[in-house]
Amino acid sequence: MAPGTDPAALRVITTAVLVGLVASGVALASGLGLLAGGTAAPRPWAGRAPANGPAQAAGLRLLREAAQACRSLPYQGVELAWWGRGSRAGGDTSVVQVWHRPGGQALTQEPGAQVLTQPPAASLDGRGQHGQPVVPLGTGAPNPDGAGVLGMSTRLVSLLAANYEVSVAGRGQVAGRPARIVTVRRPGGGVAAWFWLDSATSLPLRKEMFDARSHLISSVAFAEVSIGPGAVSGEPAATASAWHTTLAPGRLARLRASGWPLPGLLPGDLTLIAAKESTTPAGPVVDLDYSDGLSVVSIFVQRGYLPTPLRGWSQVALAGHKVYASDPDDLCFAWAARGFVYTLIAAAPQQTVGQVVVALPHDDGPGWLARLKHGLQRMLSWVSP
Amino acid sequence: MTRHLGQRLSALIDGELSDTQRDRVLAHLAGCEDCRREAAALRMLKRRMHALGDAGAGDALTWRLLALGPAAGQRPPARRAHRPPAPRRRRYAWSLAAAGVVTAGLGLTGAVFLAGGGRPPPGPKVVPAVDVFMVQHAITTGQVPARPSSVPSAGTKVP
After folding, report:
1. Neighbours of A231 (CB within 10 A)
2. Chain A CB contacts of B62 below 8 Å
3. pTM (2 decimals)?
4. Which chain A residues are closer than 8 Å to B61 by Cβ?
5. pLDDT score, position A270
6. A292: closest CA among A385, A158, A185, A167?
7. What residues have CB less than 8 Å from A145, skipping those under 6 apart?
8. What is the ipTM of this complex?
9. Does the pLDDT at position A345 exceed 90?
10. How far apart are alpha carbons A333 and A319 in whole angstroms?
11. Cα–Cα distance, A104 to A119 (Å, whole number)
């Protein structure tokens, strides 16, 4: 009898092939995360006890007054903004004119450019604005929690209190006005930010942010400012506004259930503070905004894939992942993974951005590996559409 | 000493005898247990060969079946000498099994690879509207980060 026709050998061959196929499928499926389910597991970075004490209380009181001042005071001025990437060399500087009337929105404009506005922050914490559309600019509608200039709002102060140690550091001067300086420190770490708050009104006049290595990464300061009745005049009309559709928690849950990757928490104690939705010719796009009180990271998620090459963008390696960068000096990155396109824009330390990029889905690896993953997904979809 | 049927037994099984010859052979079989046993073995061999329908497999089976009967002495020694020893057959079987696994793995990988190409991933082709996104982010932050001059901006780049 030929060995190939031996029933025992045939059984061995059949068993070995089946075991090999099953093992290969399980290994590939595990690699793709197809067997892990779509629910997000509890993240180890969640939660950190804030510091307490009189110094913290005094610092937070000043910051809350600053957030209130941002909302209620009329002011007008010129800001100088610098944003770097952890080094004093390089970075970009902007000159911006700012107008703000009580109860309205802060308008920012460069000479000859369109006007941006500070709309109401779309809160997801159940306090006030669930499901309500963001108020468009130029309507004169109230702005109960407007971010204002220098990124100060009651919501951000609350997050800042939860994630940082705050203290009053002393006094200084900005744009010829006396100011109190508030220091924001990482728990057990170095300085994360300094705020200069107007001594008379508590309006933020200057803010500097540092990364975990104590490198200055951003500085925004009034070069000149007028505060009080009669200070505001000649403000332009708003020509840009925030997306009107704020995602209610129910809508968020439905999107998540249908496969949209919309995390509520990101590394670096970044909490989801706003979620908005808009429509493009390619379909809906969701804007998720996260903050720890200082940093703000916006992630835009939409279904689809990126063209290759992506014109106007350059491919870079960030935290071990290949992504596209819109500009070397901007923290703006895009990539596609698992049927979604992610665009990340950050006002945050680069380390934080790297952590966020790592936490989001990626289809990394050699081209053949990505093709294998895609092929397996497609074949599985044939079996279970 | 009784003279057995020999080649006539095969002819009987194959239906190649004339009526007269068949009567004589059957008469012999009635009184000869050895020839009956050999006839039964030959019939079984013929049935199994029909069932297998494969010349190669039948050849191997033939020698095994013939080993059951009294005519073992008629087996050609040269054919026995060509049978590989048992350990060698096992190695051959394992090699064949390994080749099967490798072939199946390569085939599956090739199929997955082919399925993963050709068509673009699901969903529309998307070019991020970075200008719009930058504006939305600036609105969210309340800061005015510097941005490319091509982007609708609240800030002016200065050298």
Report:
1. 16
2. none
3. 0.61
4. 1
5. 95
6. A158
7. A71, A120, A121, A123, A128, A129, A153, A154, A155
8. 0.71
9. yes
10. 12
11. 9
